[in-house]
Design brief:
Blueprint (H helix, E strand, L loop, with lengths): L1 H10 L3 E3 H8 L3 H13 L3 E4 L2 E4 L1 H7 L3 H12 L5 H9 L5 E2 H8 L6 H16 L4 E4 L4 E4 L7
Antiparallel strand pairs: 1-3, 2-3, 4-6, 5-6
Length: 151
Amino acid sequence: MVSGLVEVLTLLKNRADVATIVSEVGMESGLVLEILETCEALGLVRVSEGDAILTEQGVSFSRKRYSGKIRVLRDLVKNVEPFRSVIHYMASKKQPITVEQLCKDLQLCDEHPESISRAKSFLLDWLVTTGYLEYDGENGSFRLKRGVKIS
């Protein structure tokens, strides 16, 4: 969704008010604001006076192919919460961890099935996609991907 929002802003000449973005993407405003917040935390967008503006890094990101975007996101997420905490937590574990245990230990979400499902999607969408974690669907567990270096 981050990549899609950056692409929409690119099509809108790198700047648009939030209402225009909501209209263009056809999503609920709350979800668009969450995505904008993530884009801002990653340094791809800045929000000023109701306008979302691509940063220089956001413009550079928009010009990359899919694999290049994944590399950029991989570099960015390691420094942004809650990604950083999850990566460091997983690096400290020798055994695979279920999403329920991760949520409990890091207080990422409550015990409701919907919250657990959202946390699982978050891990799959961000930390598996960017190559930090591996997911074992058979056991429903995550582990740090072999070869990942944590600084």
